[in-house]
Amino acid sequence: MPATPDMQKTIALVVRPNTSGIDVPVRQLVDYLQHAGYRVVLEAGTAEHLAVDGIEAMSAADLGAAAYAVVVMGGDGTMLGIARQLAPYNVPLIGINLGRLGFMTDIPVERMIPALADILGGKARADKRTLLEGCVKRGGETIHCGLAVNDVVVARGAGAGMVELKVTVDGNFMYNQRSDGLIIATPTGSTAYALSAGGPLLHPSLQGVVLVPIAPHALSNRPIVVPDSSSITVEIVAGRDISVNFDMQTFASLMHGDQIVISRSPYNMTFLHPEGWTYYDTLREKLHWNEYPAGDSRPK
Question: What is the assigned CATH class of domain 5-122?
Answer without folding.
Answer: alpha beta
